[in-house]
Structure formats: C-alpha cells, structure tokens
Design goal:
The chain has 309 residues and is an alpha+beta fold. The two termini are 39 Å apart. The protein is globular and about 50 Å long. Helix content is 25%, strand content 34%. 40% of the residues are buried. The longest helix is centred in the last third of the chain and has 15 residues, at 282-296. Helix 1 crosses helix 5. It contains eight helices and 19 strands. It has helices at 76-84, 107-116, 179-182, 190-198, 229-242, 260-271, 282-296, 299-302, and strands at 2-6, 10-15, 22-29, 36-40, 47-50, 56-58, 64-67, 70-73, 90-95, 118-124, 126-130, 134-138, 141-146, 151-159, 165-172, 187-189, 211-213, 249-256, 277-281. The strands form five sheets. Strands 11, 12, 13, 14, 15, 18 and 19 form a seven-stranded mixed β-sheet that branches. A five-stranded mixed β-sheet has the order 2-3-9-4-5, covered by helices on one side. A three-stranded antiparallel β-sheet has the order 6-7-8, with no helix packed on it.
Length: 309
C-alpha cells in the first residue's frame, strides 16, 4: 500500500545484448515519488532519463529510452524486476548505452534487488485505476485493458514454428509468484542472427542469454526452463513496458501477438485522455474493495454467530 525503494545500493555487471560490450548498472535508493530514474553516468555530463513512456525512442527488439543525445536500451527486464518486487523508487546509474542482458531474463535483477532488500517508505502508493476499456490494434495484433482493482495480464502468442505454436499465459502482479515468469528468457531465430549483426544489433547475443531456434527446434543444449517459456517472456516484457506509465496501472490486460511497440501505444492511448482513468491511492482502492465485499455479504456473514447454532 506504500511506496518502496531498495534498502541499499547494488552493483550488477554483464554485457550489452546489442553492443556486445561490457555493461554495468548501480541501483540506489531514492526518495518517495522519485519513480525509476536512469542516469547515464559514463558520459562526461551525466544525463538523467526518467522511466516514462514519454522518453521511449525505440521499440524494435527492445525498449529504448532517450533524452537529448543519450540513450539506454533493453530496459524492460530490469523494469519488470522492479515491478515484480514492488520497487517504486530507485536511481539506476548506467555505465554505457545498455542495461546488461544477463541471461536474457529478469532473474538476476530480481535476485539483486531482493539481496538489497525492499524498504517500505512513508508515502502512500498512487495508482491509475481504469474507468473504461482502452484498446489498440495493428493488423492481427491486439493490446487492450479493462477496469480492475489489480494488474492482471492474459497473453497469447502465435508462431508458425513447431517449438512455439500457440501459447497462453496469465499473471497477476502482486498475487502470483514472480518466479513463474522471472526466469523466462528472451528468444530469437537463428535465421535472423546474421542479418541483425550486419545491422549492428545482437552483437552480444548468445546461447547464454537467449533461447535460439532453428527451423524446427530450440538449439540451446539445456532446452527450455518452462514448456511455455516464450509466452511467459512476453508477459515479463509487458510488465516492464507498463512500468513506463506515469503511475502504476490497475486493469485487466489482454495481449494477442503484442510486443514492445503495441505496449507503448496502449500506455499512450490510456494517458492521452484523462477520462480513461482516475488517480487513487492503493489504500483507497483496497478499502473500496472491502466495502464492496461487505455490501455483497449476507447479514449473517458479517454479524455474530450467536443464535445460529
């Protein structure tokens, strides 16, 4: 019900997925109402970039934030980890143009944040509560959200590949065990690797930080971590992308073949019209839920048991 930050700073090192160069970050505690603030500390004049959809500059293959001439890519897995562990406020010092890819999932970030400990602050958590359905489409890809007192995601992926096919997965933030999605890795196709590298992308990609598929199977020697790892990773990505909203969103989300671009468009569609949502504290949301439950209960359920037996 209250905002949270990390109790102490934590250092994380790895490589950049696209640059292939060493990448590192330092996560530090932040005051209430700071939000998640990225800072390019490797620059001569460090530039701060808020984790907000207004600073999204690229959604191809990953989510990239930018301000002036500074950019930070592949932010979604870290943002998802913050969301899964209820971190609202943190300063993330980034040394280079990318957040490290780690093993292609959010597991290492979740472990590091947990080791730094979650610290509850005095300020109530404010949320954006959906008042009506909002939907964006692009061809057969759909992203929609409906009013709810939680952030719940129903995702569906469809790939004409024998190792993927059609997969569905549902997850409720704050209710379901985050470990059911945290270890789900990003994935790509062997046939696309050379083309991406010629474009200067995926230079750090390997079997150590992604699921790689040929025309018929997964070629990683250790196989999959979950039978439906592909759609679970899509849910992980979505949670990270929705963390770019100006306030935590409460709503029932449906994603069909959606990706970073459609996630960003849904956030823009929601907050482009103030009539789509109302701002409440999480305490108010939970209290209104309890009142509703009391109203729905029969009198005997809320009163004394005297006289029933």
């Amino acid at each position: 019900m209250y905002q949270c930050t990390v109790r102490r700073e934590v250092h994380i090192q790895g490589i950049g997925l696209h640059s292939g160069k060493p990448a590192s970050i330092v996560i530090k505690p932040a005051l209430p109402n700071t939000g998640i603030l990225f800072v390019r500390k490797d620059l001569k004049n460090p530039i701060a970039i808020p984790a907000s959809f207004e600073f999204v500059t690229q959604t191809k293959l990953a989510t990239t934030l930018g301000r002036n001439q500074a950019h930070i890519s592949t932010v979604e897995h870290l943002l998802s980890a913050f969301k899964l562990l209820s971190i609202d406020n943190a300063v993330v010092e980034v040394f280079g143009p990318e957040v490290p890819i780690m093993d292609g999932s959010a597991a290492a970030f979740c472990e590091s944040i947990a080791s730094a400990e979650v610290f509850e602050q005095a300020a109530p958590k404010k949320v954006a509560v959906l008042k009506k359905r909002v939907e964006v489409r692009k061809g057969d890809k759909v992203a929609s959200i409906e009013p709810s007192s939680r952030l719940h995601i129903d995702a569906r992926v469809e790939w004409n590949h024998p190792a993927i096919g059609v997969q569905n997965f549902s997850f409720t933030v704050g209710e379901d065990d985050y470990r059911t999605i945290a270890m789900a890795r990003t994935f790509g196709f062997l046939k696309d690797v050379e083309a991406l590298k010629k474009m200067g992308l995926a230079l750090g990609g390997s079997l150590d930080n992604a699921i790689v598929l040929d025309d018929v199977r997964v070629i990683n020697s250790d196989g999959l971590r979950y039978d439906d790892e592909f759609v679970r990773h899509k849910v992980l990505d979505a949670i990270g992308d929705f963390a770019l909203a100006p306030l935590p969103i409460l709503g029932d989300v449906t994603l069909v073949k959606a990706g970073h671009e459609l996630h960003a468009e849904l956030i823009q569609a929601i907050f482009s019209n103030p009539e789509n949502y109302e701002v409440k504290t999480l305490i108010e949301v939970l209290n209104s839920q309890e009142s509703l439950l009391d109203d729905e209960m029969p009198a005997w359920a809320t009163g004394s048991l005297q006289g029933i037996y």
